[in-house]
Amino acid sequence: MNSASRGRLISFEGLDGAGKTTQMQLLEQWLQEQGTAYVRTREPGGTSLGAEIRQLLLNRPELSIIPLAEAFLFQADRAQHFAELVIPAMQAGKLVITDRSYDASIAFQGVARGVGPELIEQLSMLATHGLKPDLTILLDLDPSQVHQRTDVTADVSGLRQERTRFDAEAEEFHQKVQEGFRMLARKYPERIKVVDASRTVEEIHREIVGLVSRLLKS
Length: 218
Ligand code: TYD
Known about the structure:
Blueprint: E1 8-14, H1 20-34, E2 38-42, H2 48-59, H3 67-91, E3 95-99, H4 102-112, H5 117-127, E4 135-140, E5 152-154, E6 160-162, H6 171-187, E7 192-196, H7 201-217
Parallel strand pairs: 1-3, 1-4, 2-3, 4-7
Antiparallel strand pairs: 5-6
């Protein structure tokens, strides 16, 4: 995408159960109060094709998807998502907020599944046409502290969240995901902001508002 685009892309990342959903909802409320228009989306599942791919990836353990196939499925979802939704929205000058994107594949498939972070980053680059988020909010929480999804849990709006194939992974897997995200935060300190998710919901929200305000003014 060329530099003439005026839109902004913000991604939320972190371990499952670190409070992403709650913080995205609070940010949405804040943006609405400010009168800032935005598009909220997610990976996997931000498009019609993505919704189908999401079902395969999260809810079909009997398929025994191998790590490389899993990696390609996430990138297929991402390629469709950027072409159909993210890039057009940004070219129209919109603010896009996505629940996961570019970095999730590097931490989950690249590091935790062992496919290799460099290879996965190249695939993410290909899928996004080289576009990285302008700001990535990394909700950082020790895997032993994450809020475990049992069968189904409800977030603050009462939305049900299903327990996925990834939630079922052992703590060692989530430790590796965490290492992957921290490695990325060291590699991209300007873009990826590490937010300590062990604090209160309100404290975390205030920090996120500060980061987003700064981006929107830049
Ligand atoms: P979801 O229910 O959206 O989880 P969360 O709300 O915790 O993000 O399921 C998405 C799962 O897919 C999550 O466990 C992270 C994983 N994932 C990857 O492994 N690679 C990716 O590239 C993306 C986008 C997500």
